[in-house]
User: Fold this.
Amino acid sequence: MEKKLPTIEIIEKYCKGCHICVEFCPTKVLEMKGFVASVKNLEACIKCMQCELRCPDFAIKVTP
Amino acid sequence: MAFDYDKYIRPGKLPHIWCPGCGHGIVMKGLIRAIDAVGLEKNNTAIVSGIGCASRLPGYMDCCTLHTAHGRAAAFATGVKMARPEMNVILVGGDGDGTAIGGNHFIHACRRNIDMTYIIMNNNIYGMTGGQFSPCTPTGAKASTTPYGNPDPAFDVAKLAIGAGATFVARGTAYHATQIDKLIVEAIQHKGFSVVEILDDCPTTYGRRNKFRSVIEMMNRLKEVAVPVKAAEKMTPEQLEGKILTGVLHKVEKPEYTAEYAKVIERAQAAK
Ligand SMILES: Cc1ncc(C[n+]2csc(CCOP(=O)(O)OP(=O)(O)O)c2C)c(N)n1
Ligand code: SF4
Ligand code: SF4
Ligand code: SF4
Ligand SMILES: [Mg+2]
Assistant:
């Protein structure tokens, strides 16, 4: 069965580039692109929601 | 679905003013999830603060909010709760606001055991005013006012609250985001004065003076220093050296102040 990929939305105008989501993602899904976070490898996402929970700026939304 | 924070945030208020990587935003999100989980009605919930970066939090919340004078959140909140005991009252603020200028209000709110929840964001510094040391700055740490290292011992906020009579005391960290809402939920549901200390980070005024090269290093410190109370029971004093206990640290039942005050009113009316 094909696994359903989550959607990860990054609200760029809220992101302050703190690196928290990138650093603590257990499967390295995210990366910094300049000053904002962006999705590098969506397939690796295990939908743990830690990036969304820890983002201090309400800038990342994961819909599993 | 992703959690809908917008339901609790005043339209147009984001992005907030906090610096990149400041933990106050993580705490605000935990508070929002907790309010949602308990099912508090926005119009029946007052969020009260003093002054400081942490104390800016109520301005973003689409609830009944009060941004008061430095250190005076507990005094104003007590007024709200006495006038409207049916309201849910939540205080928020920083370590400077709560333990320096507001220390007196803090201990007496604990002593009275009035049914409110106090979330204290402890980043070990006066962030807003440029990094002066607070009563929660660790010994030896650098602040703008202690460039050669702080000679003072720091308060343990949780122990202070327990000693002063708070009936629910818990501690979490900005790194352990999933735990924040759980602790706040329990604090809100507890009848009496509940204190939730969140170990927080101020990369801008504390981190850069104290050899933290990045937000990530500050987050890693929170991750490493925290030991859940249950795990600590199986650890030796040597293993616990330099660690800080997290989780629910204290929970007892005692008469609650607004209920006791209602009895005073009854007695006074009967005596007429
Ligand atoms: C009566 C009074 N004294 C001093 C100040 C200046 N002041 C504003 S915020 C602050 C400290 C805030 O520190 P804290 O509560 O730890 O919040 P943080 O900024 O670290 O989140 C001080 C001393 C003030 N606003 N009012
Ligand atoms: S949900 Fe978990 S695995 Fe997916 S991007 Fe966020 S932190 Fe990484
Ligand atoms: S945690 Fe939030 S603010 Fe920080 S880099 Fe990631 S999306 Fe941006
Ligand atoms: S100065 Fe410190 S406490 Fe204030 S917003 Fe910046 S990081 Fe947060
Ligand atoms: Mg502070």
